[in-house]
Fold:
Amino acid sequence: MKSLLFISASPHRRGKSLRLIHNIISHSDFQADDVNILLPHQYSIQPCTGCEYCRIHHKCKIDNDDFHKIAGYFTSFTAVVIISPIYFYHLPGTFKVMIDRFQPYFYQNNHQPNMFRGMAVLYGASRGKKLFDGAQLTLKYFLETINTDLSFCYNMREISEWSDFTPHLKTIYKKIGDIPWN
Ligand SMILES: Cc1cc2nc3c(=O)[nH]c(=O)nc-3n(C[C@H](O)[C@H](O)[C@H](O)COP(=O)(O)O)c2cc1C
Structure:
């Protein structure tokens, strides 16, 4: 069963990441049996407090927010595609808050490296040389925590309007169409 999970990381109501996902779904030739889209900002997730409870108990002390609903998305995917804008040289805060809550998974001893495929498509408005460095490292180690490798990261600079994606779309469709399913 090939189950593809898209994560749309822009918290903006008319942000471009969700539109890009719908566009990819209708144009890219990937062979998935099942497609889900996760919008992290639509969930109420408390930030990790760094209490380290999870280091001993392998679960989070916070059990009265929406994180368990998010975690459900991560039990069944075989490939994940993360689409995110850059905010202050990093991932949007709403998405980073979700990622930090995966710390209990880091402490669980069931890691099987490179089991699933992960891909990222990142975009920002400027041309900064190091624009994607922080986000890319975070995604690499977040995915590693959930037994997934970051197979590729496609980065786009000078993206302010939807039309700025135009020269990139064919490459993105191809990259996602070529997902190396396990
Ligand atoms: C809070 C915030 C911080 C941003 N920081 C950066 C940045 O550091 N570098 C950059 O190139 N663009 C930055 N941008 C611009 C966005 O990356 C760009 O406008 C992007 O197209 C927004 O995508 P969205 O509409 O899908 O959220 C920032 C935008 C916001 C709202």
